[in-house]
Amino acid sequence: MNSRNDKEKWVAEVLNSMEGMKKAEGNPFLYEKIMYRLQNKDTVQDIPAGALLPKWIIAGLFLLFINSIAFTNEISRHEPEMHNETNMGILSEIGNQTTYNY
Q1: Are 88 and 97 in contact (CB under 8 A)?
Q2: CA–CA separation, 24 vs 20, rounded Å?
Q3: How far apart are CA 6 and CA 13, in angstroms?
Q4: pLDDT at site 89
Q5: Element holding 37 (H helix, E strand)
């Protein structure tokens, strides 16, 4: 029973801690600010869609350029391995290479 009394005491203490506090108030000029912005909506300038197009084109070309460089580097790095495997296959079929079967 002692824990129940402690619990009720704690609840009463929490509820009483709100006494003396002021109620939250909104900004009294909020409505006027909203109405002013709605009435003067024409003064806000939007960025035209065509202004961003060259930047997107340049960014796309840059990414394409970087991707092509990475692709050619990857291919050139594995190129000797690919030629070696191809040559080994052809030479083994022709019979010009010594093969050992153990």
Answers
A1: yes
A2: 13
A3: 10
A4: 63
A5: helix 30-39
Residue pLDDT, tens place only, 15-71: 888 888 888 888 889 999 999 888 887 665 677 777 788 889 999 999 999 999 998
Tell me the two tokens of residue 40.
């003067």
CB 88 within 8 A of CB 81: no
- Only one residue has tokens 């092509």, namely 68
SS3 string, 74-100, reads: HHHHHHHHHHHHHHHHHHHHHCCCCCC
Residue indicated by tokens 């019979």: 95
- What is the DSSP-derived secondary structure letter of residue 11? H
Sign of CA dihedral 3, 9, 12, 17: negative
CB contact at 8 A, 92 and 99: yes
Question: 97: Cβ–Cβ under 8 A, 6 or more apart, which residues?
Answer: 88, 91
Question: Which tokens hold the place of 6?
Answer: 């402690």
